[in-house]
Amino acid sequence: MNSKVSILIATYNQEDYIKEAVNSALNQTYDNLEVIVSDDCSTDNTFKILSEINDKRLKIYRNHKNIGRIANHRKLLYEYATGEFVAFLDGDDFYIYDDFVKDAVDIFLNYNDVISVLGGYEDLFYTGERKQFISVNNLKIVDGVDILFRKCKVRYAHGSWIFRRDLINKFEFFSGKVPIGDDLEGWFKSLFFGKVALLPKAVFTHRIHFDNGVVKVDVEKLLKDLYLYDIIKDFGISIGYDKNLMSKWRDYYILKQAESFVSWAYSLYKRKIYTKEHLEKLLYEFTKSLKALKNV
Questions:
Q1: pLDDT digits (tens, 9 = 90+) for 143-167
Q2: How many CA atoms lie within 13 A of 291 on its CB side?
Q3: Separation between Cα atoms, residue 114 and residue 92, nearest integer Å
Q4: What is the spatial distance between Cα 175 and Cα 291, in angstroms, rounded to a whole number?
Q5: Closest Cα partner for 22 from 30, 13, 10, 32?
Q6: What are phi and psi of 175, to 5 degrees?
Q7: pTM of the prediction?
Q8: Residue 294 pLDDT > 60
């Protein structure tokens, strides 16, 4: 029997988007598929809409109380997923390449040292504007550590990544210490353990709208998110990487992330998602707090 793939969807109050997200997962051409949705006690019609989708490959769970994004992700990965390979999709995003899972499994079966497959993606703004990011022109297989140390530059996004589920036996995916980019913890840690196949294809659409987590940014959470790079630094040292190398890696990525946030915030201002006043307040608070961080 061919290998099973689990597509995991965490959702909360996404009634306008959840049906498209789930259907895009069910439309994948790969046969041995389970689509698992964990509704975090939504207060809108999200669960009702999910309940009306009739497909034996779909499994729906509903939390009795709201447990938050990270705990919901942990439930999906550690308690519900049964596939040999795993992909995450947010409830307001959707796949645009129906052969994504099929292509990924073909690669996994042909290359035993490939621990994950990463495709391209597109941002879809509420205005209808689309912006696409594809890292390669042809299929490319690279060492994960070459991505980690930026010898090979890629654009990672949560919905364009499929990985071997047995990675959960090697490290903790979600420590609970990274409030916004919690998926990045698993991505960075995985890069120490094998090769990554890069697909020359945009495989999913990331929606940018007013209720999106990357738009409703809280400076305090954003600063806590920078702790991610301390987690990865310490993890690298714990498995034998040089302390000075990992410290330099940490410092570089914190500054890079700060630069990326400023650029992203300005792009949201240009698209009239942020007002000028909100942008200035956000950047002032972030810059002031960032300066207070040690070793940066």
A1: 999 999 999 999 999 999 999 999 9
A2: 5
A3: 29
A4: 26
A5: 10
A6: -75, -20
A7: 0.88
A8: no
Give the position of tokens 């597109």.
122
Q: Which residues contact 107 (CB under 8 A, 6 or more apart)?
A: 114, 117, 139, 141, 197
What is the distance between the alpha carbons of residues 274 and 127, in angstroms, rounded to a whole number? 13
Could you tell me the two tokens for 59? 């499994």
| Tokens representing residue 180 in the block | 């916004």
Cα separation of 200 and 136, whole Å? Answer: 5
Q: What angle do CA 232, 233, 238 make, to 5 degrees?
A: 95
Q: What is the CATH number of domain 5-208?
A: 3.90.550.10
The number of residues making up the chain comes to: 296
DSSP for 121-178, please give it. EEEEETTS-EEEE---SS-EEEEHHHHHTTSS-----GGGEEEEGGGGGTS-S--S--
Ranges of H-type helices in 15-62: 18-26, 46-51
